[in-house]
Amino acid sequence: MKSFLEESLDQIWDSSSSLEELTFVLPSQRACVFLKDLIIKKSDKAGFLPKIIPIEKFIEELSGLAQMDRVELLFNFYEVFLASNPQKSLSFDAFSNWATTALQDFNEIDRHLVDAKQLFSQLSDIKKMEEWKVDADPDKDYSLMRSHLFFMERLGLLHQELKSKLLDQGKGYQGLIYREAREQSEAFCAQQKPNSIFLLGFNALNKAEEHIFQDLLSEGKAQVFWDGDAHYMNNDHIAGHFLRKYRDHWPFYQQNPFPEFPNRFESGDKNLISIAAPKNISQVKYFGQWLSEQESIENTAVVLADENLLGLCLSSLPSEVKKLNITMGFPLRSIPMSSLFEALFHMYSNRKRLKLAPGVYYYKDVLGLFKHPDLQDLWKDLEGDLADDLQHILQTQNQLFLTLEELKELIPENLHEGLKPLRGFFVKEFETKDFLKQCLALIQDLKPFKQGIEKEFLFRFHTLFEQLKNLNESYEYLEGIQTIHDFYKQLLTDESLSFQGEPLQGLQLMGRLETRSLDFDRIVLL
Asked: Tell me, what's the pLDDT at 303?
C-alpha cells in the first residue's frame, strides 16, 4: 500500500510537467525529508529539487518577519512598558511576573486573528462594571482596584505599541507572524503562478492558517492534499472533525468538490495490539524487550505521547538496534549537569531567605554543591576527598554557616587547590554579572574532564550562560540572582540537545506532531 506522500506525489507528477518551479509545504521538517527522498527515488534523470519547506518557515517567509525568542521578547515588552509609564517605576522582576502571561495572551489573540482593539475594549468595560463601586466607601482603600482598572485599560495599548516596536525591527512572536502573514497573503498570491503551491498532510489549522489556505485556493495558486480516511469522514469520529468542518464551511469547497478518501480500515489489513503496563518504567522496559525479539525494525516508528519518556526509551534500547533516528531534541533540563547550576542558584537564594550576611552560606547548601558528581573531577587527583573531609569536619564541629575563609581553615591544605574553581562564588560583594562570569569560568574548568556527549552537554550550558550574559549587558535589567535564575529556567525549558541520525533508516523515535503526513509499517505508541 502506498504512503500518503507517495500517493500525493504521483498525482502531482501526473499533472505537472516539471517539479522544479513548485513549492511543497508540509506540517514538519521530518515530512520534508521523507518527501525529498521520494522525489529522488522516483526521478529518472538529473534535475533540481522543488522548494520543500515546513509550514512554520512558509508562514515566516509570507510575513517577512523573523521569530524573536521569548527572553528577548520580554525585554522588548519591558521597554514598551517603561516608555508608556514614565511616571511609574516597576522593577523588571515584578514586571516579568505578569508580563509572561500577557505575552501568551497576545500570542493567542494574534494567532487566531481576534480583533484586539475590540477585545481589550470589552475587557476594560467588563472590569469597569465589576468595580463600579470604587470610591463608594470613603473608609476603604481602593488604590489596588483603581490600579488594576488602569492596567486593564492600558493593556490594549501595550499590545499595539509592542506590535509596532517589533514590526519596526522586522521581528515578531509566533502569533504576530501569523497575523502579518494573513495580511500579506493577498499580495503574496498575486506574485505566484497558478497551482504552483502544494499543501500536503494538514489537519487542525489555526484561524490564520485557515484564511491563508483559503486565499491560496480561491486565487487558484495552490492545491491542498488532505491526509484523511473515509472511516473518519463518514461518521462523527473526532479524528475527522476538522476535515468535515473545512468541507462543510469553506467557500471554496461550496463551489468545488472536496476530495474523496479511501477507507483504509476496511481495505487494509491492520493488526492492533494493546499491552497493559501500570507504569512508565514497565511499558518502556517491555518495549525494549519487544524490540530485541524483532527480526527487522525497518520502517518502524516509536511515538511518544509523553516526550519526557525519551530518556527512559534511550536507556532501554537493546543492542540489536544498530540504526536509530530521534526526531525530537533531548531537553536540557533533563541532563544531570543542570542540577549543578541549580545547586549554585539554591545556595544564593537560600542565603537570602535565611537573611545571612554577604559571603555567608548554609552548610548543607555548600556540602550539596561540593558533593555534586560533576565537581568530583576537579579534585580527583588530590590526596583525599574534599567533600567527604568537609562533611566529617562540619559534623564534628557542628558548624551551620560557612565563609570562604572558614572553608580554607577547615579543610587540609593539600585540598585547597580543589577550592580554586569555586572561590569566585564565595566572595562577599557579588553582582549578577559576576555570577554569570563565574559560571562560565567553572564550565571552562570542567571542560578538560569531559568526553563525548558530556562535552556537548557542557557546550550547551556554555551557550546558555553566554546568552544570559549578553542579555544582561544589552538590557541591564537582570538585577539579582533570583531574576537570573528565572531566566535560566526559562532558557533551560526552551533548549534541547539535537541528535544526529539517519532519518530514513532504522528505528524512528518521534513525538506525535512529527508523525503528521507520514506512514510506517509498524507503529509503537508509548
From this structure: 93
CA distance 287 to 295: 15
- Cα–Cα dist 344/183, whole Å: 48
Cβ–Cβ < 8 Å for 139, 150: no
Burial class (CB in 10 A: 0-12, 13-18, 19+), 410: middle
Grid coordinates of 357? 550576611
Give exposure, 479-497, as e/b (b: 16+ Cβ within 10 Å).
ebbebbbbbbebbbeebbb
What DSSP string describes 276-314?
--SSHHHHHHHHHHHHHT-S--TTEEEEESSGGGHHHHH
Q: How far apart are CA 200 and CA 214, in angstroms?
A: 14
d(CA 483, CA 488): 9
* Cβ proximity of 137 and 98 under 8 Å: no
Higher pLDDT, 480 or 360: 360
The Cα 110–Cα 167 span in angstroms is: 14
| CA dist., res. 240 & res. 235, Å (int) | 8
**Full-model pTM:** 0.81
pLDDT tens across 6-49, in order?
999 999 988 877 788 899 999 998 899 999 999 998 887 777 88
| pLDDT tens-digit map of 342-400 | 988 888 888 888 888 888 888 888 888 888 888 877 776 666 566 777 777 777 777 78
